[in-house]
C-alpha cells in the first residue's frame, strides 16, 4: 500500500465518511444551538451585572465580584462536572445539554461582566457630568450616554472571549452532549479509524473559521482610529 493510500485509508476512508457524515451534521446543529444559547444568555447576563455594578451598591458589588472571580478562576471542565454530578444531590436533575448551556453561559457572563465594567470605567467623568447637566438621571446617563460608548470599546475583547468560550462546547462530550467531538470520538472508538475525527475537525473548521473571521472584522470595525 502506497503512502497516499495509507493516508486516505487512515483519515478519509470513503465508506466511513458515507456512514458518519450525517451524524456529524446533526452534531453540528447541536453545537450551533449550544453556541447561540450561550452567547445570548452569557452576554445578556454580563451586561446586566455590569450595569448593576455601576449602581455602586457595596454589598451587591461584592457578590458580583465573587461570582466573576470564581467563574473566571475555575476551569470550565471542573464547573461542568460539579454541576452535572453535584446538582442531583440537591434534587436538581438537568439534562446534559442544559448543564453545558448554563455553566458556559455563567463563565461567559463572568468574563463579559468584567469586560463591560472595564469599558464603563474607561469613560471619562466629564461624560457623566455632561449627561447629568442636561437633566438626565443616573440611570438615563448610564444607559443613554456612558454604556453606548463603553460598548464600542468592549467589542474586540468580548469577541475574542466569546469565541474561546463557545469552543468549550466540545467539553460536552464528557457528560454525553451529542455535539461534534462526542459523536466523532464515539464513532472512532467503534470503527478503530480516525476518519470520524477527521470529519469532526472539518466540521469545527466549517463552524468556527467564519466566526473567527467575523470576530476579526468586528475588531477592525469597532477599533478606535489612531491619530
Low-confidence stretches: none
Question: What does the average pLDDT come to?
Answer: 88
Q: Order of helices and strands, N to C?
A: HHHHHHHHH
Radius of gyration: 22 Å
Q: What is the tally of helical segments?
A: 9
Relevant CATH superfamily: MetI-like
CATH topology: MetI-like fold
Measured by DSSP, the beta-strand proportion falls in under 5%
- For the record, the CATH class is Mainly Alpha
How many domains is the backbone divided into? 1
Distance between the termini: 62 Å
Helix amount, in percent?
over 70%
Task: Give a concise summary.
The protein is mainly alpha-helical and 227 residues long. Helices cover 81% and strands 0% of the residues.
Amino acid at each position: 500500500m502506497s503512502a497516499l493510500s495509507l493516508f486516505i485509508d487512515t483519515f478519509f476512508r470513503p465508506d466511513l465518511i458515507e456512514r458518519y457524515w450525517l451524524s456529524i451534521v446533526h452534531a453540528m446543529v447541536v453545537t450551533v444551538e449550544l453556541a447561540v444559547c450561550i452567547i445570548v444568555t452569557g452576554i445578556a447576563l454580563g451586561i446586566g451585572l455590569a450595569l448593576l455594578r455601576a449602581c455602586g451598591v457595596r454589598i451587591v458589588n461584592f457578590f458580583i465580584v465573587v461570582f466573576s472571580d470564581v467563574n473566571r478562576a475555575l476551569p470550565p471542565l471542573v464547573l461542568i462536572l460539579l454541576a452535572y454530578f453535584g446538582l442531583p444531590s440537591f434534587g436538581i436533575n438537568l439534562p446534559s445539554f442544559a448543564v453545558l448551556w448554563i455553566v458556559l453561559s455563567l463563565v461567559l457572563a463572568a468574563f463579559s461582566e468584567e469586560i463591560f465594567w472595564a469599558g464603563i470605567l474607561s469613560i471619562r467623568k466629564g461624560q457623566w457630568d455632561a449627561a447629568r447637566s442636561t437633566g438626565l438621571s443616573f440611570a438615563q446617563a448610564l444607559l443613554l450616554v456612558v454604556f453606548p460608548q463603553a460598548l464600542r470599546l468592549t467589542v474586540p475583547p468580548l469577541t475574542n472571549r466569546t469565541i474561546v468560550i463557545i469552543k468549550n462546547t466540545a467539553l460536552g462530550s464528557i457528560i454525553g452532549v451529542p455535539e461534534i467531538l462526542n459523536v466523532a470520538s464515539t464513532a472512532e472508538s467503534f470503527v478503530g479509524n480516525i476518519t470520524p475525527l477527521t470529519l469532526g475537525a472539518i466540521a469545527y473548521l466549517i463552524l468556527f473559521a467564519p466566526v473567527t473571521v467575523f470576530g476579526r472584522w468586528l475588531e477592525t470595525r469597532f477599533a478606535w482610529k489612531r491619530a
